[in-house]
Write a structure and sequence with these properties.
CATH topology of the largest domain: Zincin-like fold
Strand order of the largest sheet: 7-4-3-9
Strand content: 5-15%
Number of domains: 3
Distance between the termini: 51 Å
CATH architecture of the largest domain: Alpha Horseshoe
Radius of gyration: 24 Å
Number of helices: 28
Length: 577
Amino acid sequence: MENAGLITYRDSLLLLEDEPGLAERSAPLEVVAHELAHQWYGNLVTMAWWDDLWLNEAFASWMASYVMMELYPELNFKDRIIQEGAFGADASPTVKPVKKVVRSQPDVMDGLGLNYSKGESILQMIESLIGTENFRKGVQAYMKKHAWGNTQADDLWAALDEVSDFNLSKMMKGYLEQPGYPLLDIDGDGTIAQKRFHLAGADVKEQTWAVPLNISYKKNGKIHREIVFVDKKSTRLPQLAEAEWVFPNDNATGYFRWSIPAAQMDNLLADLDVLNNREKKNVLYNMQALLNGGEAGIDSVMKVLNAMAADDDPVVIRASVGTLAGFLYLVNDDNEAQFAELLNEKYMPLLEKLTLTQSDDDDESVIRLRTQLYSLLGRHSDNAELVKKSKALAEQYLADTGSMPNGIARTALNVTTMGPDADPAWFDRIMKVFADSKLPNVKNTLLYSMGYEDPAMIDKLLDLALTDNVTPANTILMLASVTRNLDDQTPYYAWLSDNAEAVLEKMPDYHVSRMPEFIATTCDADNLALAIEFYGPIKDQHEGMARSYDIMMDESNQCLRLKETYQSKFDAFLNGL
């Protein structure tokens, strides 16, 4: 917390191993940079009211990213696309604008994350449009004029308008004072039509934005680049007519989704070498979003995914692994064998090449790729040899918790304790090491990695939530770590019903109010019925829970609609391999 003169942190951010690895250092360094930035953005200049909370959080996040890129280039912050952390929540039909009416504490917390992610994305987009030097001048003028005072968003826009050649404030208000973001459909004749992006089947209010496009296109064998502005439902740019391909998001700084004709996408995939890592990731993430919006098919996504998986850079390969994991909601008892076959054939060779042992020469992108790939394959490849290796790694970690990164240990412990035949004896062994451990991150790895599915073991895990082994702030994490392993959450809700009073009394009010969306959002109709049965009668008894319940219902029903739309097509894709 960014108290002036007394910044406070979670112990898990500060109490690390003597020589933490790259991955272990990343989050603590970023949080420290963020909280220090608040001494200027939040303390020196403070928002006048909570409807402009983004002025504090977006600037602190933006500055932290800048610090990380400049001081710690080995952590690859330059390849991170902040927008992807906002697009999911901002696509909901029930989402509220970043700048919204705030009358109570739940109003502040509603969509809190968008103040950080969407807010930073907008600042990043502004900087890319007017240039770093002009952006710096505008921000410096804003800070000097309002030092030791309070501000509103209009104060920032006034300062930035002074260093911009266009009406920046009018453009940016569209992103912060209305919810959502645009989808730009670019036709082969250069016509760009915009509408509000939404997930398939969702009903949203139509909106338009003034959209800045930092656009590249290839025509007659030559690549052209220019900045254009689209502010109408339909705009024609003749220069794009008959282009071989169009990429409208140079360096992936735009806050929008986009689509181009299939033939152009094929040409762009053939020219991937002209894109940087951020742009390649944007092509993939954007195509997955089009699928979720009902604007593309599974085959189209898989074509892009396979192209990215064949890239030489682990940053891009990791994006493909993450995108593949995005289809897990469609993996079920009927197709899990085919999905495992896909993993073993296409991705297991890569994990074997990387190995499960971290080298001193591994850079951050390789470390994160290994961790993500192992997590996916460990849980879903049904590979006996990998299970055997996981048990050996679990044994090694319990003998010496400093012998491997916590990310690898988490999957090893999870694989070892999941499935109907998991040995209950591992629970006592893990808790013995937990009791003897001092470092918070080691304790968290041990406590939240167990994957038991047996009802008796589920009760033992959940009982831990009511002990001193789990802090009030981490109680919700303990509950979530159990539910994520359960296809059938009946045992969880049985325990929660029996222990509801104790759980609700222990947890902070904010976590109580957000339980439905944080824990109960599901893509299973039976589990959703259990959530409705539990939360329905109590949602109006806890301030803010009714809103969280609505979010749970919206996100769960959206996932169920996607499952109904794509299940048979996903099955057909797997069967066709």
